[in-house]
Design a protein that fits this description.
Elements (H helix, E strand, L loop, with lengths): L3 H17 L3 H10 L4 E2 H7 L4 H13 L3 E6 L2 E6 L2 H17 L1 H11 L5 H5 L5 E2 L1 H9 L3 E5 L3 H6 L6 E2 L17 E6 L6 H11 L4 E7 H6 L11
Parallel strand pairs: 4-8, 5-6, 5-7, 7-8
Antiparallel strand pairs: 1-3, 2-3
GO molecular function: DNA binding; DNA-binding transcription factor activity; thiosulfate-cyanide sulfurtransferase activity
Protein name: DNA-binding transcriptional ArsR family regulator/rhodanese-related sulfurtransferase
Pfam families: HTH_5 (PF01022), Rhodanese (PF00581)
Amino acid sequence: MGDRKKKTELFDQLARVGKALGSGKRLELVDLLAQGERSVENLAATAQLGLSTASAHLQVLKQAGLVTTRKDGTKVHYALAGLDVARLYELVRTVAAERIAEVERVRDDYLHSGRSPAASALRADSEVTREELLARAAAGEVIVVDVRPVEEYAAAHVPGAVSIPLDDLARRIDELPVDQEIVAYCRGAYCVLAYEAVDMLQTLGRHARRLQDGMLEWRLSDLPIDTGRAA
């Protein structure tokens, strides 16, 4: 039957991963790190955490082997330990959405908060699948706009995508033609930036749609990516 003590120790070790992910804030940090390497300061600011609190959460993730660190002078940068961690995060999201009824309601409340009923009603026919985007971008039929922060674009982006962070979109609207469809994307299925970008683009007279999910799902589907900052 085996050694009960050793079996208990084995499952306790496996549980370290579950315990590390057993925090909404730590899951949010994993979500951000799925976009690429980030400094502690950047992660804390983006997740609206104090620096010491963010560092403590990151240490828990590191002790479970889910993230790695790199020092650059006095700064510490974190990254996911591997693409398998991103896949685990995506699986946690999927299981939660399928098994917990509240997830879908809370997700919709978040993604459509502050949007007009008319804008929210457009969501179904304002989405583009990854396959459609690949084909239409290759044919030059759409302009792809990455509305994430520039450091996330530099870490990985859809080939040919233009980097225009959401906060800069209104100011840079003249860079986008009025006679061609625009597809905006951001971090993933739970990212609000692309929703807000599409609303803004349509208000400013552009024909815009949103990638159905985002960069996390794009990478996990082994689709081509580019790296580096915009020229």
